[in-house]
Amino acid sequence: MTKFMKEIKDLELVRLNIQLTKKCNQRCKSCNSYELDCADEMSCKEIKRVIQECCALYPIQNIAFTGGEPTIHRDILELAEWGGAI
Ligand code: SF4
């Protein structure tokens, strides 16, 4: 079980909001997302594992991918297709 899963094990989750990336191709004045270090972001495999673990433990009804700008994540199409099928 991941550290994240241990931290949330006592919650009753029905919705997942997963920040795929902090990267963004916009420059909104109220945000510095484009300046953030993205070196620690989860891989596609890690994202899928977190989703699978959450779905095994909780009655997840909705998964949302957020950012930054999630549509610039290199694996967004794979994750969206995969996530829509689980
Ligand atoms: S993450 Fe959102 S608020 Fe921040 S720069 Fe990108 S679009 Fe703007």
Short key terms for the protein model shown above:
binds iron/sulfur cluster, 86 residues, two-stranded parallel sheet, globular
Notes on the protein architecture:
The chain is of the alpha+beta class. It has one domain (3-85). Helix content is 35%, strand content 12%. The chain has a two-stranded parallel sheet with strand order 1-2. Helix 2 (44-57) links the parallel strand 1 (15-19) and strand 2 (62-66). The radius of gyration is 14 Å and the shape is globular. The two termini are 20 Å apart. The model has no long low-confidence stretch (mean pLDDT 90). Bound molecules: iron/sulfur cluster. Residues 24, 26, 28, 31, 33-34, 67-69 line the site of iron/sulfur cluster (SF4).
